[in-house]
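For the sake of transparency, this paper describes our internal protein records without simplification. An entry from our holdings is shown next, in its original layout:
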Amino acid sequence: MARTTLTPEAEPTVNPLAENTLAFTVADVANGNQFAHTGRELLIVENIHATVAKTVTLQSVTINGRQDPKHNVAQSIPALERRAYGRFGEGWKQSDGYVYVNGESVDVKFCVITLAV
């Protein structure tokens, strides 16, 4: 099956003190998730489980015979915490133009923000 595409939110730029609600999407455990690569994305990962750490895994690509050391390494997110990842360089852009991310369970949620230039 196809990966579930995460829709990025635009970085708030009008008022730096304005509160913005972030829309999180539950991880598609069976198929994985993806988001379009522009090189300006910030990925926020949230673990909503009350007591157990959960993992998220990102897939890099080979450039000049090398891959990022974090390729396919599960990153642990402690219970009830968030982590931010980005900006994603060309080494994370898959051949179809997306960045691939996998969550361990439905307790993992994603929010992608496209940063201004």
